Amino acid sequence: MITIHFEEKGKKTILTYSDNGIGLADDFDINKAESLGSQLIVIFADQLNGTAKYIKPDIGAKFVIEFEA
């Protein structure tokens, strides 16, 4: 299952993508990843003048992009 969530906190917008797939390695670094999907997340965040980070949940993967509204 894929979940996409938008939240506004003051002037910031937070976009969260999460899934319940196999997840990523414990040492995964989104800024050093070579996969096209990870690179697209970083590029998207950069275009919004925001930040992208990976959070390792118990199951799956979770990416958070924060940018000013």
Shape: globular
Total DSSP E strands: 4
Class from secondary-structure proportions: alpha+beta
Uncertain residue ranges? none
Order of secondary-structure elements: EEHEE
Characterize the main sheet: 4 strands, antiparallel
Distance between the termini: 27 Å
Work out the strand percent. 35-45%
Question: What is the helix fraction of residues, given as a range?
Answer: 10-25%
Radius of gyration: 12 Å
Mean pLDDT: 94
Strand line-up in the sheet with most strands: 1-2-4-3
- Our count of domains comes out at 1
Give me the number of helical elements. Answer: 1
Task: Explain what you see.
The chain has one helix spanning 36-47; strands spanning 2-9, 12-19, 51-55, 61-68. The protein has 69 residues and is α+β, with helices and mostly antiparallel strands. The protein has one domain (2-64). The chain has a four-stranded antiparallel β-sheet with strand order 1-2-4-3. A hairpin with a 2-residue loop joins β1 (2-9) and β2. The longest helix has 12 residues, at 36-47. The termini are far apart.
